[in-house]
């Protein structure tokens, strides 16, 4: 049965000039999706083209598409065009640009958005291999704030540059602590095979690094940096060229819904880290717990603070995985500070495998961002077609999986939707996913 007023949106991230768009769907009672009339809703820009053999970095982001708390306005990025599109959401779920949209992101390659009241925060990653001059030093990554005017227009307020070639993956404001924002930097720029045929380096010096930022969001929307947090010591097991080790890099970040706790995916260690923070932005590392997947990249707790889901980007060879996985943690009560993994789910994988730029076998479709529906009955997970080089002639791999969440908070696969049927260009990698309900 169709459910009017219950919507889901994704971004096509279309790499063809001016063809980037948002796709809207009505969410049905069983979790299936019905495309909205009027699809696609063009964003007025172009998505980011990562046409390499599984190169890490450019698509490792979260929240490139968000909806306001009242469900009446949608924001998304045009990463290659360096702009942000702003839409009014109509009563039937269709989208209409606000006056002046899209707006400059005031940086290069915007990739993540978050809201603090009427302030929009943006991270500009500056890792677009088709804006190579900026990537190799003429610009820096940045965190930017805008005031959202009543008509949806964005007015620039402040900008903080990111030093040392660090690359943001996410900017995030906890709903319970709207005066604090977190930034997450993650950069991998290494020619792992040493021959240059499988890697597209941004510069001449290998670099693998990451860090966390803590910002104060002022009443006027101005960002002030309070802390720059280096992660726990590096993992000495990784040795490449002249690097001493690969840092314990962060990717996905999300806060507990009621407690001042920040969960961080330590992607290179397959661990979930836990930090306590206060209103002044001080951070205390409480420790980390193991993750059974490979490359824990995105984290998302439920509204009750009893379960936390992680999207693990790759199969884990020591567990004979054939695809990306989803882990479920118990974070109820005292387990909020020391989560316990209680479930792991392997996602369906339709595509071929290939040898990536790090010279190991890689599935052609892997899991990226996720969202829970407002009633938390379904968890939706985007999978992207990874091998976007000319040698890959197969068109499958861009998929939206719908997972049914049972009474214990454990997900299982309910439906899978191949996004090519909805107009997603197979050489693009769709990104960003959100849901909203309107009365």
TrEMBL record:
InterPro entries: Cycloisomerase_2 (IPR050282), Haem_d1_sf (IPR011048), WD40/YVTN_repeat-like_dom_sf (IPR015943). Signal peptide: none annotated. GO terms for molecular function: 6-phosphogluconolactonase activity. Keywords: Carbohydrate metabolism, Glucose metabolism. The keyword Lyase does not apply. The keyword Zinc does not apply. Gene3D superfamilies: YVTN repeat-like/Quinoprotein amine dehydrogenase. One of its GO terms (biological process) is glucose metabolic process. PANTHER family: 6-PHOSPHOGLUCONOLACTONASE, 6-PHOSPHOGLUCONOLACTONASE-RELATED. This is 6-phosphogluconolactonase. It comes from Nitrospira moscoviensis.
């Amino acid at each position: 049965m169709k459910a009017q007023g219950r919507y889901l949106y994704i971004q096509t991230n279309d790499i063809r000039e001016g063809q980037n768009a948002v796709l809207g769907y009505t969410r049905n009672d069983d979790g299936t999706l019905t495309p909205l009339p009027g699809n696609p809703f063009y964003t007025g820009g172009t998505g980011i083209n990562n046409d390499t053999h599984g190169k890490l970095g450019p698509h490792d982001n979260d929240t490139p598409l968000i909806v306001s708390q009242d469900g009446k306005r949608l924001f998304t990025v045009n990463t290659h065009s360096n702009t942000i599109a702003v839409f009014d959401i109509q009563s039937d779920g269709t989208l209409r640009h606000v006056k002046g949209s899209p707006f400059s992101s005031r940086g290069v390659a915007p990739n993540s958005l978050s809201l603090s009241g009427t302030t929009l925060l943006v991270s500009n990653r500056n890792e677009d291999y088709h804006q190579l001059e900026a990537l190799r030093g003429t610009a820096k990554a940045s965190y930017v704030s805008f005031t959202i005017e009543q008509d949806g227009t964005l007015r620039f307020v402040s900008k903080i540059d990111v030093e040392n070639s660090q690359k943001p993956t996410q900017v995030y404001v906890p709903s319970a602590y709207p005066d604090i924002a977190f930034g997450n930097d993650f950069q991998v720029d290494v020619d792992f095979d040493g021959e240059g045929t499988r890697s597209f380096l941004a510069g001449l010096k290998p670099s693998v690094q990451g860090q966390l930022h803590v910002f104060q969001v002022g009443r006027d929307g101005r960002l002030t940096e309070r802390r720059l947090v280096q992660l726990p010591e590096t993992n000495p097991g990784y040795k490449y060229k002249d690097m001493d080790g690969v840092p314990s890099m962060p990717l996905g970040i999300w806060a507990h819904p009621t407690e001042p706790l920040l969960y961080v995916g330590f992607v290179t260690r397959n661990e979930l880290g836990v930090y306590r923070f206060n209103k002044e932005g001080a951070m205390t590392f409480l420790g980390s717990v193991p993750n059974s997947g490979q490359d824990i990249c995105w984290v998302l707790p439920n509204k009750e603070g009893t379960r936390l889901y992680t999207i693990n980007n790759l199969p884990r060879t020591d567990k004979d995985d054939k695809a990306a996985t989803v882990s479920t943690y118990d974070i109820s009560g005292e387990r909020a500070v020391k989560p316990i993994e209680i479930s792991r789910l392997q996602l369906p994988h339709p595509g071929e495998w290939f040898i990536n730029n790090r010279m190991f076998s890689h599935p052609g479709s892997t899991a990226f961002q996720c969202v829970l529906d407002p009633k938390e009955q379904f968890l939706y997970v985007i999978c992207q077609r990874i091998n976007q080089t000319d040698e890959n002639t197969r068109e499958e791999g861009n998929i939206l999986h719908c997972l049914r969440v049972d009474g214990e908070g454990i997900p299982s696969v309910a439906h899978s939707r191949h996004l090519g049927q909805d107009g997603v260009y197979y050489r693009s990698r769709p990104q960003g996913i959100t849901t909203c309900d309107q009365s």
